[in-house]
Amino acid sequence: MTVVFQRTEGLTEKPYHYCPGCTHGIIHRLVGEVLEELGVLGKSIGVAPVGCSVLAYDYFNCDMHEAAHGRAPAVATGVKRVLPDHVVFTYQGDGDLASIGTAEIIHAAHRGEKITTIFVNNAIYGMTGGQMAPTTLIGQKATTSPYGRDVVHSGMPLKVSEMLSTIDGAVFVERVSVDTPSNIRKAKKIIKKAFEVQIEGKGFGIVEVLSTCPTNWGMTPTESITWLQDNMMPYYPLGNFRTPEEVK
Amino acid sequence: MAKILMKGNEAIAAAAIKAGCRYFFGYPITPQNELPEYMSREMPKAGGVFLQAESEVSAINMVYGAAGTGARVMTSSSSPGIALKQEGISYIAGAELPCVIVNISRGGPGLGGIQPAQSDYFQSTRGGGNGDYRLLVYAPATLQEAVDLTMEAFEAADFYRNPVMVLGDGMIGQMMEPVEFKEPVKRELPPKDWATVGTEMTREPNIINSLSLDAAELERMNIGLQEKYRLMQKNEVRYETYNMENAELVMVAYGTTSRIVKNAIAALKEEGINVGLIRPITLYPFPTKAFDEIPETAKSLLSVEMSMGQMIDDIKIAGNGRWPVHFYGRSGGMIPKPDDIVSRVKEIIGGAK
After folding, report:
1. Taking CB atoms and an 8 Å limit, are A77 and B62 in contact across chains?
2. C-alpha–C-alpha distance, residues B139 and A7, integer Å
């Protein structure tokens, strides 16, 4: 029998706890496949966030470290400074990275910390039940913005990739999406590039992945894909914001 | 071995490097800045890494990451910065990792002052962050003790897989005394096979974690932590007793305050008044057994602290109702004077008579 597809060695066999239609499942697989294909699984250390993917330490088949909310880039810094030849990555949601963790991500980028950050942006706080995030869109309803996000009250949503791309040490910054098979394939290529940037010792890399949260958006999985395309993609454009010349 | 005249902050840093610490993450705050500055000069020479983090929060999380890889790692700060580290310290204790935290304490609460204080006693001995955990807390009174205890701290941290605190005050950090760096006493330490150093595809992944969504599992984990603290109480207590024979009152003081108390004891002795001292060297575990050495002649205890009286509770617990516990303290960075301690003792003894 020919095997046409199998679970990557980069993931464990533990069944996910994620909701039906949650894009964490796809993104975990892409990261796992990339680490396997690059042959670095055995020297990888991942840092898990606080959020829906807090249990990522059960899903990635490498040494894992559970961080406090927002602190993953600092934890990863500690690991990488001890083990500079290892591949160290953080996997963070938008509450973790763009709210409580803004100091840590900015300074990891500022120092040019040779780590790779996978930033899962679904414009909401998933695990805690759907509160407003810094990335929540104007008019978008969340449990702490029940009347819809208002710019006067809460400001415009935070564009993390754009912001980080102004920092010299952030040598690779790209925003991708996992809304279509084509975009998923592109996302995997970009995630691979980001890890290559680390392996080649070039500096800090981050891939922002536009993602869905059907449960807290109050939609079906397919409706949420459409909502992402219609609402998130115009505000958070896909594309590369910074790349070291050689990787380009 | 020759003695070197050193400033406390630098001596502590040098002791850490001597004990095998190769990673330091810190942030500037008065009055401990000479410690990270020394580390920035000397760590690279020792083949280690110094990194100034963007905040004390970030620094303790870098410590958490490095500790997870099995490295000997340290941070230092002063009271308001230690307050910021409490989240990270709780995570390190929950994840059962070793590290050393140096607090060169200053007046509080809030921004407080930059002069010495002992008002972090509660913060240091009651865990400090969320959850049921403790730190092993060393309180040196001299720079030689600071050096010896800092070296010991790394051994103890590795032995217990727990954060260990070296608690000095601004005077310990800033003063200069001759110190010598003896070979640290080594404990028998198990291999760090739990460390996140990469699986090399030869073993299951190691996970550094303090989360457990299963309540029964979290309870088991907490029971395990308490076993560690029971072992600390059994094996790690350190204290000094001074002039206890025929003492009619016993003072309890630690750190630099204990040295001022010894001056007061000498002054009282000249007037024919015999007063003793119990000097805790570990604040946790508290030296309860020292209180069994209090002579029949002693009728009361006096806690002398540079705080509003944070050690009183532990003295009462250790005393268990056997003696009334009095207090004398200065706050805000004011240093107690021997004369004022003498007056307070006379006040108490006079009243008892």
Report:
1. yes
2. 54
The residue with tokens 């020394």 is: B38
Exposure class string for A157-192: b at 16+ Cβ within 10 A, else e: bbbbbebbbebebbbbbbbbbbbeeebbebbbebbb
When mean pLDDT is compared across A77-86, A157-166, B178-187, the lowest value belongs to B178-187
pLDDT of res. B351: 59
E strand or H helix at B15: helix B8-18
**SS3 at position A125:** strand
Query: B228 by DSSP, 3-state: which?
Result: helix
The set of residues, in sequence order, having a beta carbon less than 8 Å from that of B266 and lying 6+ positions away, is none
| Cross-chain residue pair A63–B73, CB shorter than 8 Å | no
Report chain B residues whose CB lies below 8 A from the CB of A60: 205
CA distance B19 to chain A (A): 17
Helix (H, G, I), strand (E, B) or coil at B303: strand
Contact A212, A225 (CB under 8 A): yes
Structural contact between residues B327 and B252, judged by C-beta atoms closer than 8 angstroms? no
Q: Which residues contact B121 (CB under 8 A, 6 or more apart)?
A: B283, B305, B307, B310, B311
3-state SS assignment for residue A49: coil
Q: Does pTM top 0.90 for this prediction? A: yes
Distance from CA of B62 to the nearest CA of A (A): 4
A94-141 residue pLDDT tens:
999 999 999 999 999 999 999 999 999 999 999 999 999 999 999 999
pLDDT along chain B (353 residues), means of 10: 93 98 98 98 98 98 98 98 98 98 97 97 96 98 98 98 97 98 92 98 98 97 98 98 98 98 98 97 98 98 98 98 98 97 96 50
Asked if B205 lies within 8 A of A62 by C-beta distance, the reply is yes
Task: Give the whole-angstrom CA distance, residue B101 versus residue B77.
Answer: 8
Upstream peptide bond of B190 is cis (omega within 30 degrees of 0): no
Q: How far apart are CA A64 and CA A74, in angstroms?
A: 14
Give residue B184's pLDDT: 83
B292 DSSP 8-state letter? G
* Tokens matching residue A245: 């010349």
ipTM associated with this complex: 0.95
Q: Closest chain A residue to B94 measured between Cα atoms? A: A66
Which segments within B147-262 are labelled E, that is strand?
Answer: 163-169, 176-179, 207-208, 239-242, 249-252
Q: Which of A45, A57, A74 sits opposite B209 (nearest CB)?
A: A57
Determine whether A231 is exposed, middle or buried from the number of CB atoms within 10 Å of its CB (0-12, 13-18, 19+). middle
Q: Pairing between strand B239-242 and B275-280?
A: antiparallel
Interatomic CA distance for residues A97 and A144, integer angstroms: 19
pLDDT at A246 over 80: no
* CA triple B66-A48-A50, angle to 5 deg: 115
> Do the beta carbons of residue B275 and residue B265 sit within 8 Å?
yes
Interatomic CA distance for residues B317 and B289, integer angstroms: 11
Instruction: Output the pLDDT for position A245.
Output: 79
